[in-house]
Design a protein that fits this description.
The model has no long low-confidence stretch (mean pLDDT 94). The termini are far apart. With 418 residues, this protein is of the alpha+beta class. Helices cover 50% and strands 10% of the residues. A seven-stranded mixed sheet has the order 3-4-5-2-1-8-9. Strands 6-7 form a two-stranded antiparallel ribbon. The longest helix is centred in the last third of the chain and has 20 residues. It contains 22 helices and eleven strands. Helix 8 packs parallel to helix 11 and helix 16 crosses helix 18. The chain binds adenosine-5'-triphosphate (ATP) and magnesium ion. Adenosine-5'-triphosphate binds next to helix 8.
Length: 418
């Protein structure tokens, strides 16, 4: 096995060369300090599956901060320290040419949960304990890096067997009660990897563990939903969460992601729309769009939506409800209705409704201005006041609706208005 892993670690398709050299530097440094050092979690899982191993989570038995300080002294860059947990984030010098340009250096630790859903109590420990605090067997393996141990696989909990059988299995029966966000993670990995929830793990998603969600902050839960919208297949994941009862645990009215929309989530807004892509925000909008305002207000509160997300969600539903009423509206009426709505919401409703006025607004109408300005009105001796805004918007509306087509016609209209 060790030889096979060594080969994988040197395979540029699995570990790109810049990362290999970073790992060797960390390995050498930790060996010279006598600190056993490991890669854990997603990296090992991907490596054994023969996939590109993305994040590097480095665990040391000893003190990650001391290791980080030695690395910075030798190679440069900066450290952010979390002294309480003895972890460090190494911001790599730009010469390393790595993205992301940081790496987590973590002191092996043991975690205990004082109460269901509470954050764990942490103390430094061995790699074995560190693997036991993790979520699933397939993510609880480590590959050792330092010295002659390079490429040794630690798999005390049966991760390799479960990888072969494509199973997501928790490490102990209290796992979901300790931390029910792991239920989201379990479903996310199951769907991402096309694995199955192992049957006793599946049975642990039950009323006892689901009840613990009540104790979790909205922010912790939303973080999990954010991660889902960062995945390739969010619709499938949300459907599965619904199926196993997680979404119902919050509120039976919570929507299921409508499959019709799953193809749209990655559509890139055409440049001329001036909308910047925000996949996560778009994901939420597709998720809630067929719900009632009441449900959306509930989710927004329970998941502690940011004000951007909450405003966009409410605006999306209101606009969707208004679309039939706007059907025969003039461009100026559309513009009045759309002007205060986030562009991404308008883009999203265009995607699902194909309403050409939404596209016109994004591409053209929102840029239309009267050529006559406030200064012109002043030059005509009109006293400053609310009349300015009124007149200018009437001129703009005339442009929008095609009632004036050039400056001369606009001047004529102004004369009539005055
Ligand atoms: P990904 O490919 O999504 O990055 P990952 O397995 O690396 O998958 P991360 O969220 O990056 O997942 O977390 C890194 C590691 O930390 C995991 O492999 C897992 O061992 C551990 N971990 C993360 N969240 C939890 C949790 N809630 N409970 C227990 N262990 C966790
Ligand atoms: Mg990861």
């Amino acid at each position: 096995m060790q030889n096979e892993i060594r080969r994988h670690m040197r395979d540029p398709k699995l570990v790109p060369p810049e990362r290999q050299s970073l790992l060797l530097r960390i390995a050498d440094q930790s060996a010279s300090m006598g600190m056993p050092c490991y890669l854990v979690g997603g990296f090992v899982r991907s490596l054994l599956l023969g996939k590109l191993a993305k994040d590097l989570d480095v665990i040391v038995e000893g003190d990650a901060i001391e290791l980080g300080e030695a690395l910075v002294k030798k190679y440069g860059g900066k450290l952010t320290l979390h002294t309480k947990f003895r972890t460090a984030i190494w911001h790599l010098p730009s010469t390393f040419n790595l993205h992301p340009a940081t790496i987590d250096l973590i002191t092996a630790r043991k975690e205990t949960y004082k109460a269901p859903g509470a954050l764990p109590t942490v103390k430094p420990s061995t790699i074995d304990d560190d693997l036991r605090r993790r979520d699933f067997t397939v993510s609880a393996m480590a590959v050792r890096l330092d010295g002659d141990h390079f490429g040794e696989l630690l798999d005390p909990l049966g991760g390799q067997d479960d990888l072969k059988q494509k199973l997501i299995r928790v490490l102990h029966p209290r796992s979901f009660v300790d931390d029910p966000t792991r239920i989201f993670r379990a479903v996310r990995f199951e769907q991402r990897l096309a694995f199955n929830l192992e049957s006793s793990t599946f049975n642990l998603i039950n009323s006892e563990s689901l009840a613990v969600f009540e104790k979790l902050s909205g922010e912790r839960i939303r973080h999990e939903v954010d991660l889902i919208f960062g995945e390739e297949n969010p619709a499938q994941m949300l459907a599965r969460l619904h199926e196993v009862g997680v979404l119902n645990a919050f509120d039976p009215g919570l929507p299921i992601f409508n499959d019709r929309y799953s193809g749209l989530i990655d559509s890139k807004p055409p440049e001329e729309f001036g909308v910047s892509q925000n996949r996560i925000l778009l994901g939420y909008l597709f998720w809630i769009i067929d719900s009632s305002i009441g449900t959306v207000e509930f989710i927004s509160k329970r998941l502690d939506f940011t004000s951007e997300l909450s405003n966009a969600s409410v605006a999306a539903i209101q606009l969707k409800n208004d679309l039939p009423l706007l059907k025969n509206a003039k461009p100026s009426e559309w513009t009045l209705r759309l002007e205060k709505i986030p562009l991404i919401v308008i883009y999203m409703l265009w995607l699902i409704s194909n309403e050409s006025a939404l596209k016109e607004f994004l591409v053209k109408w929102r840029h239309v201005k009267a050529t006559i300005t406030g200064d012109d009105l002043k030059a005509r001796g009109i006293p400053l006041g609310p009349r300015y805004k009124e007149v200018l918007s009437q001129l703009r509306n005339a442009w929008l609706d095609g009632n004036v087509k050039n400056h001369k016609e606009e001047e004529e209209l102004l004369n009539t208005l005055l």
